[in-house]
Amino acid sequence: MRAPYLKRVWLDETRVPDRNGYPFCLPIFNRDEFSLEFDSPITIIVGENGVGKSTILEGIAALAGYDEAGGGKGYMPVDHSRAVEAMGGELSKALRASWLPKITKGWFFRAESFFSVSRYLDQAAVDTGEVPPDFLSHSHGEGFLRFFEERCRHQGLYIFDEPESALSPSRQVEFLKLLRRMDEAGFSQVIMATHSPMLMAYPGARLLGLTKYGLEPIKLEETQHFRLLREFCLDPELFIHMMLGD
């Protein structure tokens, strides 16, 4: 069966422990109903910082059985005895999901935990007598791309939280090519949060804008990210002058 496998997630009010506690105090959850449907193999969520994009991805990842701090099923690469700014575990306890079928293979990528995850995978390979993937011997951006290429080969649910964080524009094009290969193969579902207009422009992706008022379909040209970038490209000097003058 082709992706998407995860069809819908929604918040079960009976499972919310404390409406005033994080993450349930976020405006996106202070609505009559929080529900997110997936009708495309690739779903891209955009929005300003602090509206809850990462938290939603963490919740979905934990619901799928992944480590909320980054990783895949059966992996716990981050030391949870230390403070980890990930609240997806709490959110996942209050989420329900509709799958067809339930696919829990895949990966949750968080830029913040990339180095911890890479060291974990290297050591796991050594422990089993395999050749380590050695993502960290390359530049930050090249390590990201090698990681994506190595981890995203098989059927699964892949969740990316701001994958562009270490990628130059040309490397973002390479990431887009990876998305196309995953999409054309038909066996990968991708859920991604990004601030990159280049990644938002992936053909056929469902683009959703997240605000405190909810999640709504949005066109690339309607996003604040695209509008600001367009204004900058039209006249960089004037744009910077006006922005710094506010």
From TrEMBL:
Gene3D superfamilies: P-loop containing nucleotide triphosphate hydrolases. One of its GO terms (biological process) is double-strand break repair. InterPro entries: AAA+_ATPase (IPR003593), ATPase_AAA_core (IPR003959), P-loop_NTPase (IPR027417), Rad50/SbcC_AAA (IPR038729), Siderophore_ABC-ATPase (IPR051535). Its main location: membrane. One of its GO terms (cellular component) is plasma membrane. Residues 39-214 form the AAA+ ATPase domain. This is AAA family ATPase. PANTHER family: IRON(3+)-HYDROXAMATE IMPORT ATP-BINDING PROTEIN FHUC. The keyword Cell membrane applies. One of its GO terms (molecular function) is ATP hydrolysis activity.
